Amino acid sequence: MAADMTYLCFVPEHTDTGHRVLGIHTSEDGAVAEPLAELVDGPAATVLADALNGIVQHRDTAQRQLDAVLADVADDVRAAVSALLPRLARTGAAQERLRVAAALPGLCERGPGLFTTTNCPGRCEVCGTCRNDCAECPRCRQFDCEVCLPVVITPRTAAALDAALGRLADEVYDIAEQTPLAGGGPAIDADTTIPPCVADRDPWFLRRYARAFDDLACDLAAGRRPIPACTAEEIALDLAIQDAERCQHDEPDLHADFVAAYPGSRFDFDWHILQDALFQDKDYEGLLAHPIPLSYDAAEEWFGEFGNVPTRDPERGFRR
After folding, report:
1. Domain segments of the chain: what residues?
2. Second label for 140, Cα 20 to 30 Å away, from 126, 199, 281, 294?
3. The whole model's pTM is what?
4. Pairwise pLDDT comparison (23 vs 139), residue with the higher score
């Protein structure tokens, strides 16, 4: 098996003679389906394939799903998956490699529902009988358990953040379409959605900036933490977190509509933990209120990818 093999996805195969999981990977001759593991029942094969696709796509709860299904399989299946995981950690460094896995139907609908309300495993080895979202556990209440750590993004937090990202992206797209260079009317007031230092940029810059909000929303749709891949995404995420918090406090009815479809958690809407957990650093903050227009080269640096997080698919296009 080649060390640099790139897995595109995993699929379950169900026949009259048994059930197995196939790994679809690239080779010199194209895509190849390789048997990974044989299982005694169909649901286990389906769940295992879905969990491995989640690992490939960096889904937030994929490891937890994988641990759960591996607890009830044969030793040879656990060994095969364990040998595979280091290779999967390198797969998906660029999102164009995720197109096949992203297109497959999953066990859960894409979106905020892919996140979890709790990190409690049900009977924690540290807390003992810890259950019910850790609400009655004195150790978890003080965050003394290293297993039942606070959840960074819950389903309702993801839904509120996704709504904010969509709102702000649409605002920037509207501004891009109404700038004089785009052939529209006078440029509308960017308010705080577009930092002053880039408010004079052309429609091409503004459309890419709007796409930064959409790229982060796509992460949430896939069940991934929205980790910024460039400066534009850092600014977009910071503004979206602020806007989601503003909506929660200033427009409670609208906020309630956004999150009503998802289960609640005691970790919902902890906007401070998002600021701490999702950013590599806060070097971008000076740009949010920087009053002097940036040079062309300095503005273009906003879209230079960091390289130490999964990169965006260069052929992803624009939502509008």
Report:
1. 7-107, 117-150, 155-303
2. 281
3. 0.88
4. 23
